[in-house]
Amino acid sequence: MTTAAGAGVRRTASGWWPVVWPVALGVAGLAVWQSAVTAGVVDGYALPSPAAIAAEFAAFLPAIVEGAGVTGVNTLVGLVAGSVVAIALAAVAASTRPIDGMLAPIVAALAVVPIVALAPVLNTMFGADSQTGRQMIAGIATFTPVFLGTLRGLRQTAPVHRDLMRACAASGWQTFRAVTLPTATPHVVTGIRVASSLAVISALVAEYFGGPRGGLGGLISTYAAQSAYARSWAFVFGAILLGVLFYAATSVIERGVNARLGHR
Predict the structure, then answer these.
(1) In a domain, 71, yes or no
(2) pTM reported for the whole predicted model
(3) How far is Cα of residue 207 from the mean position of the Cα atoms in its chain?
């Protein structure tokens, strides 16, 4: 009993360490930052202290939540649309080698698209009051990791499994549903998890460079232009929390899918 209880305590403690260490490091970094500003080592005007940023965050919390809602919708639309297109094209590429060869340079080009240069162009194309350009930017950022993850997953099916399904007179759809899809799904959801953070960053950058000012990126730009740096940093912190929320949500989905399929 005692040995089992001790082992349980050790497992619990070891499970907490991956959380404790990053939190402790973050707290230590904030303490150093605050001390540097208080001691005058760092100019508090150019780089506000964590206390000043926290005060602005509390004062403008409703505006931050409202801005996060706008940016979150742009991110979600881009993430879903980009994932759907990427999965569909990856399925075509996996089944047809010539199309795979045609798509390879396009995917490589999309992976290195300069969002900073593309965002103003799309914002101008779709108008100053439209969110479409921001959503397209998020979709473009989503496409490559989801496409590559899906394509890799679709190619993971062992030939012996396909041969077994053919020997059992299974149709192409039955083989896809019973063998290919369960094998590919973990790779698909991993690609979506990776893409979620990229989609948030891309939506923020697109909002920063023009268009409606309701999103977090536009508000960061506005307050930075007004030299309200502590307020601008408060909205940056809101953007960080939004990115963490998307990453956490997609991670939960990934774990749920893997658990349902029996993957660890």
Answers:
(1) yes
(2) 0.83
(3) 16
CB atoms within 10 A of CB 163: 10
Between 36-40, 165-169, 184-188, 204-208, the lowest mean confidence (pLDDT) is in 165-169
Q: Which segments of the chain does DSSP mark as H helices, in order? A: 2-38, 50-59, 61-95, 97-111, 115-126, 132-154, 159-167, 172-175, 181-208, 216-225, 229-261
Residue 5 lies in a domain: no
Dump pLDDT digits (tens) for 146-197.
999 988 888 776 565 555 556 665 655 555 655 667 778 888 999 999 999 9
CB neighbours of residue 6 within 10 Å: 10
**Nearest-angstrom CA–CA distance, 121 and 217:** 16
> Helix, strand, or coil here: 184?
helix
Q: Which residues contact 260 (CB under 8 A, 6 or more apart)?
A: none
| CATH number of domain containing 117 | 1.10.3720.10
Residue 135: pLDDT band with limits 50, 70, 90 = very high
Find how far residue 35's CA is from the centre of its chain. Answer: 32
The answer to whether 236 and 201 have CB atoms below 8 angstroms apart is: no
